[in-house]
Design a protein that fits this description.
alpha/beta; Amidase signature (AS) enzymes; two-stranded antiparallel ribbon; 37% helix; ligase; Glutamyl-tRNA(Gln) amidotransferase subunit A, mitochondrial; AS_sf
Length: 503
């Protein structure tokens, strides 16, 4: 199929799936670019494997030619004068911007319902035909991929915002190691956790995008430097580690703490099928313990709101954000203007997290909340380091290099992405329903630990029934592969291997 015909098919699907609300803004500049890409293909001069492909971007990633709203009233008039680095990298590789996708406001949510433009609807439906959650906050990106409205989509993952939507929509969602992909031009939620992620239908497509984006960006202070990238490559290519998957069996870890009683039967069956499939491939299964992961979710919902309250302070109606409507009184103080701007510009979930963050950073509470959460975060990372065979490549203790090549550890962890199938949107948005904001936060319980430690993780769809042809089947679950920091290639390899279990 020519790239032009493929682009036409994606755009036609965008029109036919408008009710799912996956996109906030559509691009109208794809036609000429697709024709140019077809010409380059005929001449044998393609720029990359993504040349001529339609790619959607989450609407908290800045684009020069399309508005960036973060699904918030406070940014409804904002237009970036530049492209984010990841946007520019993909455009330079020949990719075509399909549009900007819907999300939870400023990325704060787990179900893509906290949006000024309305909730994103999953293409899968429950038995009573009501729409299910698409996951969040990159729900629009996941639905766009799942319904063939684009070739792949770029989202952001702070505590699971790429992996959870992938699990709910039956797509592949990859969160690279923290610092691998540039965050320059991405509107910040929590700086120490935010990671650009990739959503696609197949791991091979994710790998193509990762190859383009995995570069140092001097404009991003959190981007891994070239020496750090070289150090990661050298440490993870030690003789005992370099042959993993290709010629030697993997040691697969099963986190015992993830086997909770609340795990839905369909998720448990998919998890079991994944482990059994890997065992039949010759890999060995080993139980491991990550005791501090039980506290990871609580720590995350202290740290992330604290950073958010600081990042969003600039939306005051003067520097950023919309100015409140109505005349200002002559004696209106600056603080009152600030309060009006933020009160009218932010939605209820963003306000909730700003208040949580401001409280945890207050002089009275910082020791009991923020500092304690930072300690838990350090212990979570220590738990992961203790179970992986590969040493954390950026640790400063050089004396452990030889020990790391022989210690009995695991290569990757396999666990569910979400503890249950997606809930219905009506239950999430109904004030009288049983699902509270706290219940919604629990959806991230299996994705947050890897985020706190900055580890690479991928969610791959697996069916408990061994059949994923019918995507409305609620038996479909996301299975997560987590690797040591910097071991992104192995995580992608195992994710691709697990795709064989999905059939």
């Amino acid at each position: 199929m020519s790239l032009l015909l493929e682009a036409e098919r994606y755009v036609a699907n965008q029109s036919s799936h408008l009710a799912l609300n996956a996109f906030i803004t559509h691009s109208g500049r794809w036609l000429g670019q697709a024709k140019d890409a077809d010409l380059r293909r005929k001449q044998g001069k393609t720029k990359s494997r993504l040349d001529g492909r339609l790619i959607a971007f989450k609407d908290n990633i800045c684009t020069r030619d399309l508005p960036t709203t973060c699904a918030s009233k406070s940014l409804e008039a904002f237009r970036s004068p530049f492209n984010a680095t990841v946007v520019q990298q993909l455009e330079d590789a020949g990719a075509i911007i399909a549009g900007k996708t819907n999300l939870d406001e400023f990325g704060m949510g787990s179900h893509s319902v906290h949006s000024r433009f309305g909730p994103v609807k999953n293409a899968r439906c429950s038995d009573d035909l009501s729409h299910l959650s698409a996951g969040g906050s990159s729900g629009g990106s996941a639905v766009a991929v799942a319904t063939d409205q684009c070739y792949l989509a770029i989202g952001t993952d702070t505590g699971g915002s790429v992996r959870l939507p992938a699990a709910y929509t039956g797509t592949v969602g990859f969160k690279p190691s923290y610092g691998r992909l540039s965050r320059w031009g991405v509107v910040a939620y929590a700086n120490s956790l935010d990671t650009v992620g990739i959503l696609a239908k197949e791991t091979s497509t994710v790998r193509d995008a990762f190859a383009v984006l995995n570069q140092h960006d001097p404009r991003d202070p959190t981007s891994l430097s070239p020496p750090s990238r070289s150090r990661i490559a050298s440490k993870l290519e030690l003789p005992q580690l370099s042959s993993r998957l290709e010629s030697a069996p993997l040691r697969i870890g099963i986190p015992l703490e993830y086997n909770v009683s609340e795990l839905a039967p369909s998720v448990r069956r998919a998890w079991y099928r994944s482990l059994e499939y890997l065992r039949r491939q010759g890999h060995t299964i080993h139980p491991v313990s990550l005791p501090m992961t039980k506290s990871a979710l609580s720590a995350y919902y202290v740290l992330a709101p604290a950073e958010a309250s600081s990042n969003l302070a600039k939306y005051d109606g003067v520097r950023y954000g919309t100015h409140p409507e109505g005349p200002n009184s002559e004696d209106e103080s600056e603080s009152y203007l600030y309060a009006r701007t933020r009160g009218e510009g932010f939605g209820p979930e963003v306000k909730r997290r700003i208040m949580l963050g401001a409280f945890s950073l207050s002089a009275q509470a910082i020791d009991n909340y923020f500092i304690q959460a930072q300690r838990i975060r350090r212990l979570v990372r220590h738990d992961f380091d203790a179970v992986f065979r590969a040493e954390h490549p950026l640790t400063s203790n050089a004396s452990r290099i030889e020990e790391s090549t022989t210690k009995a550890g695991v290569d990757v962890l396999i666990c569910p992405t979400a503890p249950s199938p997606p809930p219905s949107i009506s239950d999430l948005m109904n004030a009288s329903a049983a699902i509270s904001p706290l219940d919604a936060y629990v959806s991230d319980v299996f994705t947050v630990p890897a985020s706190l430690a900055g580890l690479p993780a991928i969610s791959v769809p697996v069916s408990g029934k061994g059949n994923v042809e019918h995507h409305a089947d609620n038996d479909l679950a996301g299975i997560q592969v987590v690797g040591q920091y910097g071991d992104d290639d192995l995580v992608l390899n195992v994710g691709e291997l697990l795709e064989g279990c999905a059939i």
